[in-house]
Design a protein that fits this description.
InterPro entries: EGF, Fibrinogen-like_C, Fibrinogen_a/b/g_C_1, Fibrinogen_a/b/g_C_dom, Fibrinogen_C-term_domain, Pan_app. This is Fibrinogen C-terminal domain-containing protein. Pfam families: Fibrinogen_C, PAN_1. Residues 131-320 form the Fibrinogen C-terminal domain. This protein is mainly beta and 357 residues long. It has three domains: 28-102, Hepatocyte Growth Factor (3-Layer(bba) Sandwich), CATH 3.50.4; 107-171, no CATH class; 175-356, Gamma Fibrinogen, chain A, domain 1 (Gamma Fibrinogen, Chain A, domain 1, Alpha-Beta Complex), CATH 3.90.215.10. It has six helices and 23 strands. The chain has helices at residues 2-6, 52-61, 140-146, 194-199, 212-221, 298-302; strands at residues 8-18, 23-34, 44-47, 67-71, 76-80, 97-103, 114-115, 122-123, 128-129, 135-136, 154-159, 168-173, 177-183, 201-202, 208-209, 224-231, 236-242, 245-246, 255-256, 259-261, 315-316, 336-337, 349-356. Strands 11, 12, 13, 14, 15, 16, 17, 20 and 23 form a nine-stranded antiparallel sheet that branches. The longest helix is centred in the first third of the chain and has 10 residues, at 52-61. The protein is elongated and about 75 Å long.
């Protein structure tokens, strides 16, 4: 729970002088950082030109004060007397306005969270974060960094990117953050409808596709690097694409990125580039042919939805996984990545993942 303590502010109040012991008693007051949008709420008093600790002390000295807000740029302190500040949820973060809620023996954890054994903080569940579990994480990085969840994390969570009007579901992994595509099994088939690819399908323990709408909301809210990993029985290969973005439905869920860089030294670096030729291509499926080729349906022949152009693609990360170590010659509906790799071999698994740039 180290990260919870990092969001706590402690104030020590000087109490009565006790001549028997020759010292003054002190009282501790804890404040937990929460995310809110407004700086002024009903029942608020303000003080100019103070420090954050001075602001916290003023709130600690008042039994009626439940929370305080501090504006770092102006030094203005707002004391709040509303009993439930989570009525004012935040959808955008601010670097200049900070909000702290008083934590006492009456600490309440929201959204299914529970109080930890020492009674000073909450342990959140189901993708919620914050000192009171007051909001959903914006992405998997926040879930991993919160300290509320298992260190070795690989599970699907509800999150809420800043542009999302409702929660979305994403597969989070402690090593690579947001997994957006996983192909590890011989079944199921990825030759699915556009509706399936927009909504997403699969589960944490098998094959998985995050969903085009979720990709749009994620990549439009935060800058991410896309990682692609193709693994064979004796080697793993990676390629990375900076500032990877998927546009919305009105633009055919087309994708683009800002550049590339080499994989870490512990990964084989022979994996070539497949995605540059597909930039700005709309996403195609067997029932929504957007590849620009009037005589050939790339998605139908490759066995899955992808960002195809008129020549289809030099890689297929959604095709069938062969049950043998080698591919059928010329079989474009099987998994492969041609640039820089041996296209005769069958990948053991393929992953696509997003991590913050």
């Amino acid at each position: 729970m180290a990260s919870s303590w990092n969001r706590l502010l402690t104030v020590y109040l000087l109490g009565l002088w006790m001549p028997v012991w020759g010292s003054a008693l002190t009282r501790e007051r804890f404040f937990g950082r929460i995310e809110l949008c407004s700086e002024v709420f009903p029942g608020t008093s303000s003080f100019p030109d103070v420090s954050k600790m001075h602001c916290a002390t003023k709130c600690a000295e008042s039994e009626a004060c439940t929370a305080f807000s501090f504006t770092t740029t102006s030094g203005i302190c707002h004391l709040h007397y509303d009993s439930d500040l989570t009525s004012y949820p935040c959808t955008t973060s601010s670097s200049t306005s900070q909000h702290f809620e008083k934590i006492s023996e009456n600490l309440v954890c929201y959204n299914g969270g529970s109080i930890v054994s020492d009674g000073t903080a909450c342990k959140c569940v189901n993708g919620y974060v914050g000192s009171r579990c007051e909001r959903l994480a914006k992405d998997c990085k926040e879930i991993i960094a919160s300290g509320y969840y298992d260190v070795l994390l690989h599970n699907i969570f509800n999150i809420r990117p800043s542009l999302a009007t409702a929660p979305i579901r994403v597969l989070c992994d402690s090593w690579v953050e947001n997994i957006i595509h996983k192909r590890i099994s011989v079944v199921p088939s990825f030759n699915r409808s556009m509706a399936d690819y927009v909504a997403g399908f699969g589960d944490a323990n098998s094959d998985y596709w995050v969903g085009l709408q979720n990709l749009y909301l994620l990549t439009s809210s935060t800058s991410y690097t896309l990682g692609v990993q193709v693994a064979y029985s004796s080697s793993e290969h990676q390629r990375f694409y900076r500032n990877f973005t998927v546009r919305g439905a009105g633009n055919g869920y087309s994708m683009f990125f800002g550049g590339q860089y080499d994989p870490p030294s512990d990964k084989a670096d022979t994996m070539g580039d497949c995605l540059s030729q597909l930039q700005n291509s709309s996403f195609s499926t067997y029932d929504a042919d957007m590849d620009g080729n009037a005589t050939y349906n790339c998605a139908n022949n490759y066995g899955g939805g992808w960002w195809y152009n008129q020549q289809c693609s030099d890689c297929n990360l959604v095709g069938k996984k062969s049950q043998t170590s080698t591919r059928i010659p010329g079989a474009v509906d099987e998994l492969f990545w041609n640039p820089g790799l041996d296209s005769r071999l069958t990948p053991v698994n393929v992953y696509m993942f997003l991590f913050r740039s």
